[in-house]
Write the structure tokens for this entry.
Amino acid sequence: QVQLVESGGGLVQAGGSLRLSCAASGGIFSNYAMGWFRQAPGQEREFVGAIDWTGGNTVYADSVKDRFTISRDNAKNTVYLQMNSLKPEDTAVYYCAAAHKWLWSNRNAYNNWGQGTQVTVSS
């Protein structure tokens, strides 16, 4: 229903920061909850965090809590992932995904995916 394109990935040293963006088109953006996931080579896709349809509520995986922040701008049809204090174990392809707004905190509800953007953190 909605098409998603991630951007902002790159190479950064441990302790640095990156901001990822996810631009949405199609559908009505404010009707969707938005999530961020990541996947390292040979590993399963991992939940990072999610934000509800209003932007007023967020949830994060323990591994990124207090380091990453999700926000959204419904007027710009964009969701962001601010990544601070990056660690080598954060290296992965990062994906944004959409879910029905009423299911925003359920990681299994995210089934509409972007193409991903690579984040590499050097030690």
